[in-house]
Amino acid sequence: MKPLAAAGLVALLAIPVHAGDASGFDPAAIDQCLEGAVTQGARADCADAGMEACLTYTRGKYTGDDPDFPMANCLDASHQAWEAQLTTLYEAALAAGGTPEGLREMERSWIAFRKALCASAGVGKEGGDLAHARCLRNETARQAALLMELGPQE
């Protein structure tokens, strides 16, 4: 397999995942981080892209008494944006040809792996829900980065 062409990937990343929402998370931060990684020719760790701005926004708007709410809000919004990014990349890989059934099998296996891995994240620990949410977001971001490196088989 060969990596997706940088020019094609940059064009793919120019399409917004979805517009920002009431969470304060801007999915464009993910696009910018990934585009920078493609431009530099290296895989960047973009899982946290957009989190600081989201946390700043949420902390300024939230008036409740749950200290974990801002982080939970931003992790959820970030995870949703990464899921949309992963879906876009997955559909592009399927459209590029190669072995679609192999790609589908890989994704099904990965989903089972992520579910098992994240189910135990933070179990019995304070902040366990945040650990679970962070695990889901991080693993989805990692899978998107890996999927970006896949291309059609020659």
UniProtKB/TrEMBL annotation:
Residues in the signal sequence: 1-19
Organism: Paracoccus kondratievae
InterPro entries: LprI-like_N
Residue ranges of every copy of the Lysozyme inhibitor LprI-like N-terminal domain listed in the record: 70-145
Protein name listed in UniProt: Lysozyme inhibitor LprI-like N-terminal domain-containing protein
Domain of life: Bacteria
Keyword annotations of the record: Signal
